[in-house]
Design brief:
The complex is a heterodimer.
Chain A lengths: L2 E7 L2 E7 L3 H9 L13 E6 L11 E6 L9 E2 L3 H16 L4 E4 L1 E5 L2 E5 L7 H10 L3 E4 L2 E4 L6 E2 L5 E4 L1 H9 L9 E4 L2 E6 L3 H5 L6 E10 L4 E5 L1 H10 L4 H18 L2 E6 L2 H14 L1
Parallel strand pairs in A: 2-3, 8-15, 15-17
Antiparallel strand pairs in A: 1-2, 3-4, 4-5, 6-10, 7-8, 7-9, 10-11, 12-14, 13-14, 16-17
Chain B lengths: L3 H8 L9 H13 L3 H7 L7 H32 L7 E2 L1 H7 L13 E4 L5 H10 L2 E3 L4 H10 L6 E3 L5 E5 L13 H6 L2 E2 L5 E2 L2 H13 L7 H13 L5 H7 L3 H15 L14 H8 L11 H15 L2 H18 L1
Parallel strand pairs in B: 1-7, 2-5
Antiparallel strand pairs in B: 1-2, 3-4, 4-5, 6-7
Helix pairs in contact in B: 3-4, 4-5, 9-10, 9-12, 10-12, 11-12
The chains are: A alpha+beta, B alpha/beta.
Amino acid sequence: MRHATALRIGPIGFRIGSAWLAPITTLNDLYRDYPKPEDGIPDFNVHLFAARPWRRVLRPSVHIGGDFVIPDAAPLPLAQGLLAAEMAMNLQMALGQRRYLLLHASAVARDGQALLMTGLSGAGKSTLAALLMARGWRLMGDEFALLDPVTGLVHAFPRLISLKNQAIAVMERALPDARFGPLLRGTPKGDIRHLVPDTRAIATMAEPAEPRLILFPSYGFAAAEREVLPSETFVRLTQASTNYVALAERGFDALTRLVRSVPARALDYPDTATALAQVERLWDAA
Amino acid sequence: MNARILADALRDPASTATLDAQGWTALFAIARAEQLIGTLAHRLDGLPMPRAAARLLEDARASAAQGRAAALWEAEMARRALGPSGMPVVLLKGTAYVAAGLSAGAGRSIGDLDILVPRERIEEAEALLLAAGWEWVKPDPYDDLYYRRWMHELPPLIHRERDRMIDVHHTILPLTARIAPDAAALIADSELLANGLRVLNPADRIVHAAAHLFADGDLAGGMRNLWDIHCLIEEGAEGLAARAAQHGLTAAVRRAARQVRRLYGTTIDAAWHGWDAADPLFQRRMLARDGWGRPTARVTRLAFYLRGHAMRMPPAMLARHLWTKWRKGARSA
């Protein structure tokens, strides 16, 4: 690989190699406060490469690969190289992570205890996590929560927060002094802009937290809350996990323990201000 | 940089003491690419190493243990489907190694379930598997007919609930290949396991692994196959020469022996030492990886790809086959 960098997000080390300099420069800038992989040995390798040698220069398009690959990951234009790198890191986690049960969820913490929010794409878990961070919660991640099958604790994975479409303007207003990545227009998921987690999220990313509350937010409905039974939470979380099957008995035990010990609520909300008030109230009641 | 770093770590685990962070990083990337990370994890278990390396290998061991359980369960499912018919069912490759408790099975990555049944009962086996929930993967009539006429196995089947593939063989090389192993002897001389399934006898296991690597295909997965052969030979190779000759696979077995001796330091019969003119090319193909685990030596790889196809079928048939495949590809694109 012509260009490379290495960084650590939560407990996970990555080495990212690229045929182009630009994505590495952007990563080095946005991840400048992140540590290097422990002992200099990454958990996963990420490759950003051109399908044919001339495609490095001519109509450059970025293919993603690494230790773990799926056959039909579509390439992205070079201008979206940062997105390609983020997607490739997520892919390594989704396909290769075996130490932690991966929950597709955003997570924030207060007083050493974690709030997990999971739901379909568009339910608002990234936005809510970023807004809670803006209000003083510790951000643990907006994509994956890492559940340790041995301890039952949740580990942080505070990569760049991926803001999409309307959420970009919302967060630019909420955090005017924060650091943002380049605005990426016309990606497969619309406009995307990455937000760098705050200093505290990065400084405390090695500290796990005890899960206290699980929320299933849904955007676009009248405000409502409903208790979710452990059985339903269990099923929903197996669907929200990319490695539940691969972890087999360890995954089953970890998830059973989580849903038995942590309350879960479904939360419908019409706007973010209402949602934040609902979250605070449910957190205090949990 | 090439995959020698992985061969050395497997051959002499203590040699990893000299690795720096970059060395460990390359070793793991290459081991993953060669699907040998679980094997490596078992070889290096208990040795002093950086904490990050130990943690990564611990995960690989857990992952391999889960893979082992899944493979044995799949074999048990095949036993339940085929056992009552009374036909001999011989496990092949990875599943056989773990089922028989062989050292080649330690940490080994296992994909599909491969079994061998008598050729005259293969249709019966297919019907029983279909009844038990397996279904055809390739709906294409050309592919289907091609498998049934010319291959050494049924078209691959996949289980609709467990999403696992089974390859049902009636011999160990395609019917189009020039070499025709003695399939009846493979089954007749196989060994019975406690659960009623069978595995090839020790010499045939080595012959099969060598045939798979050197007489069929383009050497993809070569380091893993050679590690299998190394372990199998170290566990006992009595009567190997005679058995290889009986199957017409002496050249493949001898090449395998030379390669494992060079790569992994396997103890082999002195009469089989030596290093022929093509051996360095085979080794170059085998070790063609960079420090990111990516394939290198494109020309060598292409040459072996073409060689693999040429060995599988006579030239006129190969041309017809590639033409048909190319037209299908062109139409669907």
